[in-house]
TrEMBL record:
Residues annotated as transmembrane: none
A Pfam family recorded for this sequence: HD
Residues in the signal sequence: none
InterPro entries in the cross-refs: HD/PDEase_dom (IPR003607), HD_domain (IPR006674), HDIG_dom (IPR006675), NT_sf (IPR043519), PolA_pol_head_dom (IPR002646), PolyA_RNA-bd (IPR032828), tRNA_adenylyltransferase (IPR014065), tRNA_CCA-adding_enzyme (IPR050124)
Residue intervals of the HD/PDEase domain: 254-415
An example Gene Ontology biological process: RNA repair
Protein name: Poly(A) polymerase
Residue stretches in coiled coil: 393-420
Originating organism: Zhihengliuella flava
Enzyme category, top tier: transferase
Keywords for this protein: ATP-binding, Coiled coil, Magnesium, Metal-binding, Nucleotide-binding, Nucleotidyltransferase, RNA repair, RNA-binding, Transferase, tRNA processing
Domain of life: Bacteria
Keyword RNA-binding: yes
Entry EC number(s): 2.7.7.19
Amino acid sequence: MHQLPAPEALRQRLPSVVFDLAERFTASGFELSLVGGPVRDLFLGRISPDLDFTTSATPEQTLEVVTGYADAIWEVGRDFGTIAIRVGADTIEITTYRAESYDPASRKPVVAFGETLEDDLYRRDFSMNAMALRLPQLELVDPFGGHADLSAGVIRTPGAPSSSFSDDPLRMMRAARFASQLGMGVHDDVRAAMTDMAERITIISAERVRDETVKLICGADPRAGVDLLVETGLADQVLPEVSALRLETDEHHRHKDVYQHSLQVLQQATELETGPDGPVPGPDFVLRFAALMHDVGKPATRRFEPSGAVSFRHHDVVGSKLVKKRMRALRFDNDTTKAVARLVELHMRFYGYGDAGWSDSAVRRYVNDAGDLLERLHRLTRSDVTTRNRRKAERLAHAYDDLERRIAELAEQEELAAVRPDLDGRAIMDLLGIRPGPVVGRAYQHLLELRLDHGPMEHDAAVAALRAWWEQQPESRSSETAAAADGSTTTEEAQ
């Protein structure tokens, strides 16, 4: 059972700024309490990165107390009762007791300041976050059984879940996020309210939904969080492509359960992340989200063949496009979106290697196409093996071991991580006597293809290959005609 450390141990674990602030507020006649996540984390035996306080002081009174003490002060949240300060390395939020409510049709709270600590705790999202430590005496205030819920591993709301989620629908996403981060289940009443009110999440901004999604995917048990979103219908609103993976029951078992397979791949991908000094330090959102989304193209590409088999041709390409569309809707940045979509597009590339083998050219192309995503692609491809057929799983593992060995050997010989044509753009322009433009890009791509097919080329061989290509291009004939008409010479002739 989670226990709060003894007062003396607490004083050693909490930063001194906690007690410095407590002295300043109490000396001015105000109450101050540490509240929410930092208190919850004390029970869990960890130090919270955030320090959140609640006080009986108004924002104006809080400013008076901290002025001259804080190194920096921000008043952006003043209208909502929050003053943020920095003291040394600590960034702190101090919020006046609140008893807010939300307009049912709005994303923004209607703020009403409360009179007591208990009023403030009642409005918080979950009972485990509705605990406070009165300062400076370190008295635990837990009116809604947050400690008991932590010990039982259950997520409950201080009041009726329907009221809490009506006030702030994002709390439904937070419930799934905490299920992932803390390994806790949700109370039946919370699950029912999430199911009944799932559509209300649509009034929340895409950015806030995105941020909760990232935290959920990067949690200790993302599978549990995703499953909760799907079961309650929240995923229908925020990640409908994942819900769609639950293809109707196939009574003849001609294909595996795509949804459960995707959850298993997500779980296995998290297990293949490395420590901070490894190539893919966890938690890695790009790898995890690609693992979850890698098969989202299957529902749109499923075909029942005359033989009775089921096919999903080009589901990798279709899935990549769906991933881009969803991540753009959730306002992900371009780099993250491109990385996840590229992994989804490439996740089938390996299959067939074990049967037919690959030439060195094919291995180079695999590395080149993956680019800086190669280590993630290794892990995604290995995670995609969920078969219960032990012989098949071992065969695929051995095949990928062999591919990684060949990549390492070629990399040692050819510096595969930075494959470039043997002539750069400037050399191409000088040799062909052309200016910057699309033709240079075409020439560069041709030389890159040769590099991938045959490995490094000597300089003279690369020049000869470029000239042979140039002779086949219509631009070469037009440039010769123009040169003859005005009596000019090309760069190559001048040399």
